[in-house]
Design a protein that fits this description.
The protein is of the alpha+beta class. It has helices at 44-54, 61-64, 69-72, 118-129, 137-171, 184-217, 220-223, 226-281, 283-292, 307-329; strands at 2-6, 11-14, 34-40, 73-76, 79-88, 96-104, 109-113. The longest helix is centred in the C-terminal third of the chain and has 56 residues, at 226-281.
Length: 332
Amino acid sequence: MIALHTSTGEVRELHAAGPGPRQETRTETLDPAIVWIDMHSPTKAEDTLVESLLGISVPTREDLKDIEPSSRLYTENGAVFMTASILCGADRDRPTLTDVAFVLTASRVVTVRYDDPRAFSLFKAALKRSPQGCATGIGLLLRLLETITDRTAEILEHAAMKLDDLSHRVFDTPPGSRRRDPHYLEERLREVAAQHRLVALARDSLSSLGRLLTFLYTVPDTQADHDMKELSRTISRDVQSLSEHAAFISGNIAFLLDASLGLINVEQNAIIKIFSIASVVFLPPTLVASLYGMNFRVMPELDWTFGYPFAIVLMVVSAIIPYLFFRWKGWL
């Protein structure tokens, strides 16, 4: 699908005729008010159509997968080609990184993407409310990158809040119960792992955006406009701050992971401790029972009327004395 956006937020759709000979429509056929061409999962025919309209080579899905910096950031035939990894599906169970290509021409921006990051829908809604800053291609591109950065900041903020809540649930005993479910901490570990994956993807995305913004700052369109230079610097500083914040959150995740594993070990050791103490407590009664189970001819207690109750009482007392001793020592 190809969506054409004007600086005022008006949206039009551009449809390819389908497979066939290369179209000869030139750039003049596009309305000059159109500053953004958004290509979402374009077909081969749509790629061909945009290439014929703008006279540029549209990056394909295979081009977007190339992780070499020289293949992600370059200039060709007067157009600036940039590719960044954007965090997508942060609200889903399995967030991912999707590669988005940004092509800056003399007066327009072309984006090529095969997923739907929420930042794009947020930017489209904001474009209708404040179109004055998006009258040029470079202005629209920087505003779009600013929205992507703000969305990443929002994701990190939610992740930090979830980790804070998770920390309370890991260290606090559930109300109304002295012991937790044996699988309680294992479930918390899965939640910690999910947050770790999300923050790691956010850090990768911020790193990609940082490289893109550094390259974009050197582009003549940016250098020629003082406001755009300042905006580019501001977004770069925001990306750097968010990267540092993401690193801080990653440190908290590592601590929470170690703490969860430590608590699991403590609970397991407590269980093993109970078994060990139980075996020691029942060792004296076992000794008594073994003693009176020996087949000797002369055992005075065997002829006593109260010999059997005496042996039972002796086993109980021999179990109680070690138990009381352990309680006095504070081992129980």
